[in-house]
Design goal:
Elements lengths: L2 H26 L7 H8 L5 H13 L3 E3 L5 E3 L9 E8 L5 E4 L7 E3 L12 E8 L6 E9 L4 E8 L4 E5 L8 E3 L12 E8 L9 E8 L4 H12 L8 H9 L6 H6 L1 E3 L4 E5 L8 E7 L5 E8 L10 H9 L3 E3 L2 E3 L4 H7 L7 E11 L5 E12 L2 E4 H10 L5 H20 L10 E6 L5 E7 L3 H22 L12 E3 L5 H13 L9 H17 L4 H9 L5 E3 L23 H15 L7 H34 L6 E10 L2 E6 L5 E5 L7 E4 L4 E4 L5 E3 L3 E10 L4 E6 L1
Parallel strand pairs: 13-20, 14-21, 28-33
Antiparallel strand pairs: 1-2, 3-4, 3-6, 4-5, 6-7, 8-9, 8-11, 9-10, 11-12, 14-15, 15-16, 16-19, 17-18, 19-20, 22-23, 24-25, 26-27, 26-32, 27-28, 29-30, 30-31, 32-33
Length: 715
């Protein structure tokens, strides 16, 4: 037998050893909860990280393993049964043809336009297979399980006694029938907000809707911001039944309610928030105790006192699940009367709160804590800037109390880092200074100071304290199903890319396993903190992390190094916090469960989904404002850093204003080779290299507000 063939066989045998072992391991685990990290952890003592990476890549290429969008690993399945009924999410193309993405399956299912049933992108649908080709299956939608969007900006067309609303978004595949009673006397050509009340009329062709609002003299910015919110599934108008419920809520606290609560109105209390905040979720109090210790109270707006399970307010809050913060507005989870007035912990007003009270020794040790329904009266509303200035100057209003709390916060932070928490600096957030027409005149980065960290540390303490309490069965009560904020371990393959990029900056950082990765990431973040020009490495590190989510199945929070963590401290703007308030009260009073386990998990999934949609909305709005800002700077030159690399070019973040645009290398005279592993492009003729982290000089070539796109060219 020829030697060449023998060597090839030997190589194949060597590959099949690790490949076969991985397949057996995945099959043995039943695909349940499998992800690349578990595969790495299991085999890393026997094989190198590189060999495991290559094996996983080979198995995926051969169609034997799949990686879904949650990073899970499973043996691939194929759609092979006629009339098989499946569920998934629809991705609708511009042509109207759809593709249904089904978890763990090899191929997306093509849905011809005539079989989409007016479903839209991100709708959850049930499909029936009509063509069961292994690689290119086709099907038809038989049921829309959940619509991702219920409100649309439309142009109204009036007919005899009724009308049709034509969505402005070309990708919406239907017009909306508007009965006469819901036309709000609008005329043909009026721009309106339409809410769908019935997804099919008697003819089964057009959804039925009602006009919620007539829009007049909208600026391009106003139209864009509203469109961004609605296209991501957020209602911009509160339904009439929600507003009716809200109007019945009294702004003052009854004498009976005051008598039922622990009275903290005379204890020094204050809020610390951004300068433009109106929804004050949390307040802090401090008072000395007779035994020489002192108490710090974390007081949280008692939203659950006003919003009851099953009410119209509660149903709308479930749907929205979060407030959305765009550059020029807030789309609140709750109506303004609640979010900015009744529930907001405004200064010099009596407010209902749900509080966690901590007793500290002079050495900053917590000796006990308690939960209480309280009534508070904030003495002062501070901004982060004001508190930072007081701490820096060493004097000013309530300096001693602020200094004490700052020292405790620093101690809490130090202990958390020692336990393995990763010190990601979340302060790198782009903000805009807008003129009276919401046009950006300046772009800046939000600063994160000791004042921000002080508040964050006490909120983290309250959150983990509540999570621990709810997770443990105590004498006289059973352990209950709770809501957790979880953060999974990182993807070692993504960390390997980070390691490769860091080497180009002269840093030899290795990631052996998830536990060691914590120390390595913290070392890297310390270096970045001292050298701001390395910020691109910090962003790459954050991208390598898993996404945090809400669930009833606790796996801990990797980034914070907490075994138990939840969200309790922002119920005005986050629905999971409202759930946790209800669960905590239920536990303290030993009442019957408000929710079944399945209901809680569904609400967690909805909250996680809408959190992602809110983040997407915020990114789109920021991009729009960046484009708007640079559209008046065509031809101007800026120094930037390459922040991302793809096959046809690279992205550049401008140092002065943090706007990001793309340099398209398709317009260059030479061809470039794309190295995905090292995030690098290399010219075939010149050997010129463009890689993440490189500094470049660029000019603004073109902008498109419609496409939210910034085109840059190399100088």
């Amino acid at each position: 037998m020829p030697r060449k063939k023998t060597n090839k066989n030997k190589k194949q045998k060597g590959n099949s050893g690790i490949d076969g072992a991985i397949l057996k391991y995945v099959e043995k685990k039943g695909n349940s909860g499998m992800n690349p990290n578990k595969v790495f952890n299991h085999f890393v003592k026997k094989y190198s990280v590189e060999k495991i990476e290559h094996a996983l890549a080979r198995l995926e290429k051969r169609g034997l393993l799949s990686f879904n969008d949650k990073g899970k690993v499973a043996k691939k399945k194929f759609l092979t049964k006629p009339n098989e009924s499946l569920q998934g999410k629809l991705d609708l193309a511009q042509s109207g043809v759809g593709y249904v993405i089904i978890e763990d399956f090899e191929s997306d299912v093509k849905i011809p336009r005539k079989h989409t049933m007016n479903a839209m992108s991100n709708d959850t649908v049930e499909i029936e297979l009509t063509k069961y080709d292994k690689r290119k299956p086709e099907g038809k939608i038989v049921r829309i399980i959940k619509h991702a969007q219920a409100e649309f900006i439309c142009t109204f067309q009036k007919t005899d006694g009724f009308g049709f609303a034509v969505p402005m978004n070309d990708r919406v595949p239907f017009d909306v029938f508007i009965p006469e009673s819901y036309t709000m006397n609008c005329e043909t050509g009026d721009l309106v907000v339409v809410h769908i009340i019935n997804w099919q009329d008697t003819a089964g062709k057009n959804p039925v809707g009602k006009i919620m609002e007539k829009l007049s003299n909208l600026s391009p910015n106003e139209l864009e911001m509203r469109s961004i919110l609605m296209e991501n599934g957020f209602n911009i108008v509160f339904p009439a039944d929600v507003l009716a419920e809200t109007n019945k809520i009294k702004e003052t606290i009854s004498k009976h309610e005051l008598s039922e609560r622990l009275d903290y109105r005379d204890v020094l209390t204050f809020t610390i928030d951004p300068v433009d905040a109106k929804d004050f979720d949390d307040a802090l109090s401090v008072q000395p105790l007779k035994n020489g210790n002192f108490e710090i109270g974390v007081h949280i707006a008692d939203v659950a006192h006003y919003v009851y399970p099953g009410s119209a307010l509660d149903r709308e809050a479930q749907l929205r699940a979060t407030s959305v913060y765009l550059p020029d507005r807030v789309c609140p989870m709750l109506p303004e009367k609640l979010s900015n007035k009744v529930c907001s912990l405004r200064p010099n007003e009596e407010k209902c709160a749900f509080s966690v009270l901590f007793e500290f020794t002079p050495q900053y040790k917590i000796v006990q804590y308690s939960f209480a329904k309280t009534v508070i009266k904030s003495n002062r509303r501070f901004t982060y800037g004001e508190v930072y200035e007081i701490l820096q100057q060493g004097n000013g209003e309530v300096y001693e109390e602020l200094d004490l709390m700052n020292r405790i916060a620093y101690d809490l932070r130090k202990k958390r880092t020692k336990n393995g928490a990763i010190n990601f600096d979340a302060g790198d957030e782009v903000r805009f200074k807008l003129d009276e027409n919401a046009v950006p005149v300046e772009v800046y980065v939000k600063e994160r100071t000791d004042a921000n960290l002080l508040v964050e540390d006490f909120m983290l303490l309250a959150n983990t304290t509540v999570a621990k309490f709810l997770s443990k069965a105590e004498k006289g009560r059973k352990s209950i199903t709770s809501v957790y904020r979880i953060h999974d371990k990182p993807d070692l393959m993504k960390l390997q890319i980070l390691s490769n990029v860091a080497k180009r900056f002269g840093f030899n950082i290795t990631f052996k396993d998830e536990d060691q990765a914590r120390d390595a990431l913290n070392n890297l973040m310390d270096i970045i903190d001292q050298k701001p020009e390395l910020a691109v490495l910090g962003k790459l590190a954050i991208r390598s992390m898993a996404k945090a989510a809400y669930t009833t199945k606790n796996i801990g929070h990797y980034g914070l190094a907490y075994e138990h963590y939840t969200h309790f401290t922002s119920p005005i703007r986050r629905y999971p916090d409202v759930l946790v308030h209800r669960l905590l009260l239920q536990t303290l009073l030993k009442e019957r469960a408000v929710y079944t386990d399945e209901e809680l998990e569904d609400l967690c999934n909805q909250s996680s989904l809408m959190e992602r949609q809110a983040q997407k909305s915020e990114r789109e709005a920021i991009k729009y404002k960046q484009v708007e800002y640079l559209s008046k700077r065509i031809g101007e030159q800026f120094e930037g850093v390459i922040s991302g690399v793809i096959a046809r070019g690279f992205f550049v973040e401008l140092i002065d204003n943090r706007c990001e645009g793309m340099v398209n290398l398709d317009r260059q005279t030479e061809d470039f080779v794309y190295d995905e592993e090292n995030m690098r492009l290399t010219g075939l003729k010149s050997n010129t290299k463009y890689q993440i982290g490189d500094k470049v000089l660029v000019k603004v070539a073109k902008t498109s507000l419609k496409d939210k796109q910034i085109d840059l060219s190399l100088v």
